[in-house]
Amino acid sequence: MIGPPISSVTTETPVAMFWATYSGVAPHEPESKPEMYSLSISKPKTGPPSDVVTAPYPGFPTDLQPPFVAYLSLAKGTALVEETIFDARFVYVSELARMGADIKVSGRSAVVKGVEKLKDAVVEAPDIRAGGALVLAALAAEGTSEIGGLEYLDRGYEYLEDRLSGLGASIARASVVAPVGLRVDIGVTAQLPKIVTPYRSA
Q: Domain span at residue 168?
């Protein structure tokens, strides 16, 4: 059970994580405590793609666009994602590509072709929402991935690794930090902490 959502980021991203790794989430409100909410998780046979256009409420939220793209990278088929709210919202796509995602970006649109599997990689979170997408992809990928940019994840997701570990995810905050090489695309040159996410088979 979880309490009323604090923000769209903290509620929508975990739903996308379940969708990509367990592939089936249905929220419902129990009769006994209307102020509380829960999620029922099941696993369907396939993960179909879906075209998405972000829009103000009640449309598809732009905050959910990055984690949904991560989900679509493993869906069976091709989907078009259009971002109508913010510019440069697809900056994280190059990081997903390091994990094997097949995504082509043109302006505010991205064509996502689902692949059979993602692979482990060392990636960097450029912002809060992209960080959630990279954690999602790492949990669904084979191997052990390292994600830098925890300052963004910590701002958006309180006790992220503890909460995901409690749900069965294999994720830990690394105690030993390796240097992050020069990244021209996002300008990271300093040493940053990592989240290590070993693969967990179903």
A: 8-197
d(CA 19, CA 98): 21
3 in a structural domain: no
**Residue 46 located in a structural domain:** yes
* E strands, the chain, in order: 25-28, 38-41, 52-53, 78-82, 102-106, 109-113, 122-124, 145-148, 172-173, 194-197
End-to-end CA distance of the chain: 23
Residue 1 has a CB neighbour count (10 Å cut-off) of: 8
Closest C-alpha to 113, from 148, 135, 156, 81:
81
Cα 185–Cα 112–Cα 140 angle in degrees, nearest 5: 80
- Cα–Cα distance between 49 and 154 in angstroms, integer? 30
Tracing tokens 């989900």 back to the chain, one arrives at 71
Give the count of domains, the chain. Answer: 1
- Judge whether 1 lies within some domain: no
Q: What is the pLDDT of residues 76-92, one digit of tens each?
A: 999 999 999 998 899 99
How do residues 98-145 score in pLDDT, each as one tens digit? 999 999 999 999 999 999 999 999 999 999 999 999 999 999 999 999
Residue 158 lies in a domain: yes
The CATH number covering residue 66 comes to 3.65.10.10
Enter the pTM of the model: 0.72
